[in-house]
Amino acid sequence: xxxxxxxxxxRVEDMRLLTGQGKYIDDIGTPAQTFQAAILRSSSSHANLxxxxxxxxxxxxxxxxxxxxxxxxxxxxxxxVGVSAPVHYYPIAVDKVRYVGEPVAVVVAKSRYIAEDAxxxxxxxxxxLPPVVxxxxxxxxxxxxxxxxxxxxxxxxxxxxxxKVDQAFEEADRIIKHKYLFPKYTxxxxxxxxxxxxxESSENQYTVHANFHGPFVIQAIMAQALKIPSNKLRIIVxxxxxxxxxxxxGTFPYMVLLSVASRxxxxxxxxxxxxxxxxxxxxxxxxxxxxxEAAVKNNGKVTxxxxxxxxxxxxxxxxxxxxxxxxxxANSTGAxxxxxxxxxxxxxxxxxxxxxxxxxxxxxxxxxxxERIMQRVAFELNLDPADVIRENLIKKEQFPYxxxxxxxxxxxxxxxxxxxxxxxxxxxxxxxxxxxARKEGKIVGVGLACIVEPSGSNMxxxxxxxTPEERAKSLPKSGCSEAATVSMDPMGSVNxxxxxxPSGQGHETVAAQIVSEVLSIPADKIKVVxxxxxxxxxxxxxxxxxxxxxxxxxxxxxFYAAHKVKEKLMKIASHQMKVSESExxxxxxxxxxKNDPTKKYALKRAAGSAHWNPLSLPEGMEPGIYETYxxxxxxxxxxxxxxxxxxxxxxxFVADLVTVEIDPDTGEVRILDYVTIHDAxxxxxxxIVDGQxxxxxxxxxxxxxxxxxxxxxxxxxxxxxxxxxxxPTAPEIPNVTIKHIETPSPMTPLGAKGLGEGNTMSAPVxxxxxxxxxxxxxxxxxxxxxxxxxxxxxxxxxxxxxKNKEVTV
Amino acid sequence: MKPAKFDYYRPKxxxxxxxxxxxxxxxGKIIAGGQSLVPIMNMRLxxxxxLIDINGLQDLNFIESDDRVLKIGTMTRQNTVxxxxxxxxxxxxxxxxxxxxxxxQTRNRGTIGGSIVHADPSAELPLVMMAxxxxxxxxxxxxxxxxxxxxxxxxxxxxxxMPNEMLTEVHLPIWKxxxxxxxxxxxxxxxxFALVAAACQLELDAHDRISDIRLxxxxxxxxxxxxxxxxxxxxxxxxxxxxxxKVADVVAGSVEPxxxxxxxxxxRTQLAKVLTTRVxxxxxxxxKGSAVCP
Lengths: 809, 294
Hints:
The complex is a heterodimer of chains A (about 800) and B (about 290). Chain A is built from 20 helices and 29 strands.
């Protein structure tokens, strides 16, 4: 049998997806008498709820129940949060509304049409309160307070000090600093949230089908909120999820809301979120202000960094926030060897949509200021930005590299990757072209970005939000457990059960490849079951699909589970053949005696004996072939008393080079070429890898040029539909060249690292650097996104006017 | 995002459609391709009580020409317009503009009439009607009338049509001689409504002097804006940079765009200037290059 792992095999999922046979949440059947829900949402960004009159709505024929926060509250506790600030978050407004789109009432009716008719008849009286939407405005003395019992809008504040920061700044030749704002934007999967919730009073149990993809630590949070034992909340995730990019972790408040709605209405309730709801009230990334200061030597070497980061988590801090601040904690200094680091981290609340996971989670917010300041270092010191990066990159011989904040970069050759980017993008040649083009009045530029792509989150990192003293009061959290089950039936067919709730990434394909290679049977004979059922699947708190954890963790669990099966079969074969295991080898579906290949024992026969003839098994062996493996990594330790934390398991590397041309008259940015070099360790399936990279890059380009959830100063959302919230579509995607280098990870059995989020992290700043580079003659600093033509032209126009003024003076 | 309840009719022919429209008073709405109407109904921004589906009126799906006037039936799909050789030969500006409407998928459904009567100030077809001095043919149960594009668009999403009236066909004059045209727009993405769009058609004499010109802009006012001064400024002359600049300045002085999420008033004014220069220049170059009509 040939090697299968690492081959660009096509996806087993595609046949059903392309022929309309996918099983998404809206495709699965519902129990009899299931009613449909519509959710009335707040039109006000900040107000006291004076009254909700549901009488007229209840009269609409076909309406089963109209449910308000007052009723829901009886069955709930507020969701527990990962910070010490006493924020009371319910999945529906109680007493107050705090963002536009917050649920105010749930209508349960025979059809969604009727539910929406009834919704229009609900009368809500609001008493308006002054809103706050600005990040720094929320921290001012006289700012309106969202949560009175918290006393301020600060949900979390921590400072971290690593190395000799003050000394680095004292000894620096230059201190280069700037303030950057990363905007609020989101992930826009084609399939929105969907839930079918059913409360069975006989068992006091909630069964919830939902396109929720973990982390399944949230199952515990949901059960706690519902005030039931966790085994009374059965969550079933369908086989297919129509994309997520992180945002479907945010399905959970609605799962709880619909659960209670089912209980109150006395029937199963189904809710499919619509696009307007998704944009206004699902979840989003954080907007972040970063004040960054770099202590720099004249040769461009950065010796220390100070960062004050203020994350806007929206109206309520909710799990897993403030994780956006800390997910990248170990890799806060990116791809650079910077031993001295000070971080002042805030999570603040404003009258905007609450935030959560979206692809890149924290990476784009971190690398935007970091990679912008690296370019600024170059410009201010009159150095080539490529040379400044070279000066600071972690060197090959430094791996495994311990970062200032406790990260353990497992492997890499950053210089090789970066030089490959420069070579592939013809950097030197472009610089010459640029000089010529500038003389012709053209505005062209090149942007570079080097980023570290963390994957496989250490569940301990979220507790960095607490002080070491606060952490000491509860049990430590660590690890990144993932489970997989491989079983063989009496006829020798293989089923693989995974708990990584894929949303289109092709986990079934890769799991089949791995099991195929380990057990030496063709991949198309292996059936992978991706549905997750918390009552019957093997899972753990870290299970799910986020932080690119399949390649690093999910695949490892599958690998070891397959090995457990192999070992058991080997024992059976050895027993039957009366040959020691060390003298056997598995190939082509059979065990062969190494010294005498004429003697073989078919895998199928070994499996058959385990079922049909258990008495023939070696003494003490259990019948059946059903092996589950729980995988975690030693390196995922809890944070220590000095707040050192290795927040992820593997760390990949991405080097981007992008060239742009800006239309001087219209400010439109055109990407000429995009080169991205990836090191994700050993690639498990290069075809899937490149697909993931393209998707992540498209999302990154969205952040760079198009996407923003815009709120006015009253807290009204201005980008409530796809008319105004602009996702890049196929014609907006430029020429992209992807190249790989592979430095296998020593952390994972297959040497693989997670990937797919890298360009979402790198593209916003790579494009910003290119635009900034193009605009150097005009001395324009790019300090926010997206780079809309309106924004670029306005900056350009101002710069030209300033220049004219200088001339007249 | 589910529409409010409505009655649905699918008339077989125009008289039946007009009769239904008449009887539904102010509560009727015609649906053709539905590319604008369906989303706004789903969002309950429009709640017509009666929907009259004219997709069965195949008599209104035609493209004809008598060499003087190009006639397009209201039910003609945008994609059919885009791929019509006749339209490309006789009224190339339409072909060039239609390619900017949405995406292939939406153009397969969207109709020429639907886009015109929706009267979005940034939309391509209303702008082209204005630029080409088109005529709109309108029917009610009792009357048939025609109205010039210049009198048809009243304000944002509002036309000269009464609730009992329906657009049946549009007529565009065919220019002969050394004619060139150009349509350009700046939009945030491929297929989006334009921030600003510009359309120009001009004719040259044998000495490359402009003998006639029509120039119009979209996205700068509540309706497509015809720059009627363009002819005065440019006619009788060869196109020079100075003349182009003059037209651009006139445009900048005459537009009063609004600011919105995607473009400030100042930026829209800038785009109006830039696009004016570009379309006039391109139309001129195309006219020079063409031996006969485009």
